[in-house]
Specification:
It catalyses: 4-(phosphooxy)-L-threonine + 2-oxoglutarate = (R)-3-hydroxy-2-oxo-4-phosphooxybutanoate + L-glutamate; O-phospho-L-serine + 2-oxoglutarate = 3-phosphooxypyruvate + L-glutamate. It is an enzyme of class 2 (transferase). Its cofactor is pyridoxal 5'-phosphate. One of its GO terms (cellular component) is cytoplasm. With 390 residues, the chain is α/β, with parallel strands linked by helices. It has two domains: 243 residues, Type I PLP-dependent aspartate aminotransferase-like (Major domain) (Aspartate Aminotransferase, domain 2, 3-Layer(aba) Sandwich), CATH 3.40.640; 97 residues, Aspartate Aminotransferase, domain 1 (Alpha-Beta Complex). Helix content is 36%, strand content 15%. The chain contains ten helices and 14 strands. The strands form four sheets. Strands 2-10-9-8-5-3-4 form a seven-stranded mixed β-sheet, with helices on both faces. It has a three-stranded antiparallel β-sheet with strand order 11-12-14, with helices on one face. The longest helix is centred in the C-terminal third of the chain and has 21 residues. It starts with 5 loop residues before the first strand and ends with a helix. The model has no long low-confidence stretch (mean pLDDT 97). The structure holds 4'-deoxy-4'-aminopyridoxal-5'-phosphate.
């Protein structure tokens, strides 16, 4: 039974039961049509209404200014690693059409996802006039020199002269590292296009969209189920990518990766992930009806600070992996003294229905993910268990 379990998975992760009940109903019989929401034409007036409401509620929640467009895309967070590079380079090329124009892409690497994103940017720009500059590799600033455990201040980063964009990941899901309040916007060179991956902390605190060229996230944590990627793009970056390619020096853009094509077709250039859009729409409605992002932000602060307190007051039984100012409110990571104790911890938790607490396979340890779908009561169950386990 769902009620007997608290699912602390890092994503895909817990959604509110009422959202899933509505989704299940809509999958069978949407709005009394006798047909499910994923069985009708994506161009039908019924589905268009779903899609439009989803986008408009998302804009409300994220406070998206008129300067920016919302796109409903596929390919997940990793798809966006590629599409961001391709589209922003096309925009850069149109502004710098000279045949000898060169540029760099700056990556702020604070964990394994931004590291992967930088790797993809390198791969896509091989053999072009573009190079990738890792402006920060936070591992070099850690105590052991190899783990992602803090974000050093921006005056220690090395931006390049005039980058086509600066990229960061607001919350690193695997490493449990999050920017404290927000990215340090003041550190940026003037007029820099800033790109944010918010896959794992979207809708858990306010983010100033106007400071960004692109903000994107896979839906499957705070915003719905896998299959939908939410992309917010500044409108001047919706460009003719074929014209840009013809100027030379940058990669060609597949049509399905082309922001402008999606924007021009109201995110229906091809068949969109209809059920995933529907579930995100229901999730947005739920968040709006429960106080919006401000309320979820407060809840996230409370849930995570209570849990970190137990960790910090455990006389070393629970060892935090991340320095206090960079600790994630979404993914709380820590270790136990040895493998045996860790197993016992996971067993105890499991007996109480506290599930999916094992850390990512690349880093081990424990990871408790406290996304929007985890209530304060849910978090308290874990906290109580950890106190009594100690
Ligand atoms: N970025 C972040 C911060 C993530 O947490 C993830 C997935 N957990 C990704 C990117 C990759 O997303 P996807 O699996 O949707 O491609």
């Amino acid at each position: 039974n769902r009620n007997d379990v608290v699912n602390f998975a890092a994503g895909p992760s817990t959604l509110p039961t009422v959202v899933l009940e509505k989704a299940a109903q809509g999958l069978l019989n949407y709005n009394g049509l006798g047909m499910g929401v994923a069985e009708i034409s994506h161009r039908s007036k019924e589905f268009k209404a779903v899609s439009e409401k989803t986008v408009s509620d998302f804009k409300t929640l994220m406070d998206v200014p008129d300067t920016h467009e919302v796109l409903l895309m596929q390919g997940g967070g990793m798809g966006a690693f590629s599409t961001v590079v391709l589209n922003l380079l096309a925009a850069w090329k149109l502004q710098n059409p000279e045949s000898n124009a060169k540029t760099t892409l700056d990556y702020i690497v604070t964990g394994s996802w931004s590291n992967k994103a930088a790797g993809e940017a390198k791969r896509l720009t091989q053999g072009t006039d573009v190079s990738v500059n890792v402006a920060l590799d936070a591992r070099n600033h850690s105590q052991d020199g190899k783990s992602f455990s803090n974000i050093p201040p921006a005056n220690e980063w090395k931006y390049s002269e005039n980058p086509a964009f600066v990229y960061y990941c607001d919350n690193e899901t695997v490493n449990g590292v999050e920017f404290d309040k927000s990215f340090p916007y003041d550190s940026l060179p003037p007029n820099t296009n800033l790109v944010a991956d918010v896959s794992s902390n979207i809708l858990s605190r306010k983010i100033d969209v106007s400071k960004h060229a692109v903000v994107y996230g896979g839906a499957q944590k705070n915003a719905g189920i896998a299959g939908l990627t939410l992309v917010i793009v500044r409108k001047d970056l919706l460009v003719d990518t074929d014209a840009a390619f013809n100027l030379g020096g940058i990669p060609q853009v597949p049509h399905l990766c082309d922001y402008k094509r999606h924007a021009d077709n109201e995110s229906m250039y091809n068949t969109p992930p209809m059920f995933a859009i529907y579930v995100s729409g229901l999730t947005f409605e739920h968040i709006l009806n429960h106080g919006g992002v401000d309320e979820y932000s407060k809840r996230s602060d409370r849930k995570s600070s209570k849990l970190y307190q137990v960790i910090d007051n455990s006389n070393g039984l629970y060892k935090p992996k991340v320095s206090p100012e960079s600790r994630s409110r979404m993914n709380v990571v820590f270790t136990l003294p040895d493998e045996e104790t860790e197993k016992r911890y996971l067993n105890e938790a499991d007996k109480l229905g506290l599930k999916n607490l094992k850390g990512h396979r690349s880093v081990g340890g424990i990871r408790a993910s406290l996304y929007n779908g985890i209530t304060e009561e849910d978090a308290d169950k874990l906290i109580e268990m950890m106190k009594s386990f100690k």
